[in-house]
């Protein structure tokens, strides 16, 4: 099963090749992968990172991905230097041998992901999912949420029928009734609640932290620690603005996401803000996620998360940032 999971992850290479132009980046280009949520959308729109890096003669190239697993395959094949994902994709990427480093993380946001069902569904508890089809993006943050929610309900992962679909395809399957439930994150979750009147069966409260992680290639952390420090600093500035002015920021973000303001505001309010380098507690939590998937035989070997955490000036050979 572990080999099958990793083969599925590796199969995303073809998808990534269509998303990212196969043109070698210049040495002074920082290639960022982002998704349609979170701080990075606003950072891209504001252009403040480009201004910050201009004195270092570094330009920025942005590529949007449909989910964390696809983004990290971009990092794995050398098309991306830096990106943001949920907590589960880095585990699968590390298991697949990707050269990645955890650079920073955002505070917990457990309500920004959930298992949802149709508003008139006869399913009223996670336990009712036994034998049913559940849509999710394989290897994404909601993969871990689903595992934890099933365990809480006294079910094993094998008790449900996982249907692995990217968000757009999963929504279509959910609307048709081809799946009984959908495990999804914001802003897709907020859109499902507002537009489809989807009912939350279980969100992450008390189950998962749902951290967002900023990641870079190991090679980039060694060669450009000062660039990464600048990136994290600019992310923190946007975080403060979003936290303090959620409604005003929503008006900026909504057109970028192509979503109505009420949906965008709900997603913005549920996100965690305050990027920081990883604490021992966060590393331990992430280690627990990795161990869970190892126990499920979805990854083939025990992983050490601390082996792939960026330690400026430490064991990963990174020169201390100034």
Automatic annotation (TrEMBL):
Record flagged with keyword Signal: yes
Please give the InterPro entries that the UniProt record associates with this protein: ABC_SsuA_sub-bd, Solute-binding_3/MltF_N, SsuA/THI5
* Gene3D superfamilies in alphabetical order: Periplasmic binding protein-like II
The alphabetical list of record keywords is: Signal, Transport
* Segment forming the signal sequence: 1-27
Principal location listed in the UniProt entry: periplasm
Occurrences of domain Solute-binding protein family 3/N-terminal (ranges): 29-241
Q: Does the keyword Signal apply?
A: yes
Q: Name one Pfam family in it.
A: NMT1
Quote the CDD domains the UniProt record gives. PBP2_SsuA
Write down the SUPFAM superfamilies for this protein, in alphabetical order: Periplasmic binding protein-like II (SSF53850)
Where does the UniProt annotation locate this protein? Periplasm
Family to which the UniProt record says this protein belongs: Belongs to the bacterial solute-binding protein SsuA/TauA family.
Q: Which NCBIfam families match?
A: PRK11553.1, SsuA_fam
The identity of this protein, by name, is Sulfonate ABC transporter substrate-binding protein
